[in-house]
TrEMBL record:
Keywords: DNA-binding. This is TetR/AcrR family transcriptional regulator. It comes from the Bacteria. The lineage of its organism: Bacteria, Pseudomonadati, Bacteroidota, Cytophagia, Cytophagales. InterPro entries: Homeodomain-like_sf, HTH_TetR, Tet_transcr_reg_TetR-rel_C_sf. It comes from Dyadobacter subterraneus. Residues 18-56 form the HTH tetR-type domain.
Length: 193
């Protein structure tokens, strides 16, 4: 039987899919092996610490994603402030498949190894919080209020993901994302009738 080449990017995506769907405690080595197409021995070769290393690797990839697709976008001061926010929010919507995909941060923040992952998870939320705060301040909001609103934006995203999944209604997430600009001080867009 011919050997099938497994690409690192595919392994990363498939590991993320398993942890996002089943959480840390539900992601067995058997599930991880089946999803990636790698034998358990190959997974241990790539990740000597086993499942814990795999989950930490997934979290690092999530952190990099937020740095590249949120923080970096928000820092592009050559673009209008509202445009930067819209680009970042579009990226977040795509990441969570408009509310159809669980958040790996949430799934890994409620498991038997949560203390091990705490700093990585906190780092991701800090990137989001600081990015939303920066946008609100640039939009003229007082810094203290901007920090509060930046954190509220994260709560809205996470909460709407949970509720969207529980109610099988992605419009809950989409509505929450659409409301973030107004939360951060931008005027409400009038809908065209």
């Amino acid at each position: 039987m011919p050997v099938t080449k497994v690409f690192p990017k595919d392994v990363d995506r498939k590991l993320s899919d398993v942890f996002t769907r089943f959480g840390y405690d539900g992601a067995s080595m058997e599930l991880l092996s089946q999803a990636t197409g790698l034998k358990k021995a190959s997974l241990y070769h790539r990740f000597p610490g086993g499942k814990k290393d795999m989950a930490a690797h997934v979290l690092k990839k999530v952190e990099i994603w937020f740095l590249e697709n949120v923080q970096f976008v928000i820092e592009q001061e050559n673009l209008p402030v509202e445009e930067r926010l819209q680009i970042a929010l579009l990226g977040i919507s795509n990441l969570f498949e408009d509310g159809a995909r669980n958040c790996s941060l949430r799934m890994l923040s409620a498991c038997s190894e949560t203390p091990y992952f705490q700093s990585s998870i906190a780092s991701c939320f800090t990137i989001l919080s600081e990015s939303f705060t920066k946008i609100a301040v640039e939009n003229g909001m007082d810094e203290r209020m901007a920090k509060t609103k930046g954190m509220q934006a994260i709560v809205n995203i996470q909460g709407s993901l949970v509720i969207s999944r529980a109610m099988n209604d992605n419009d809950i997430f989409k509505t929450s994302i659409a409301a973030i600009p107004q939360l951060l001080g931008f005027p409400e867009k009038k809908s065209v009738k």
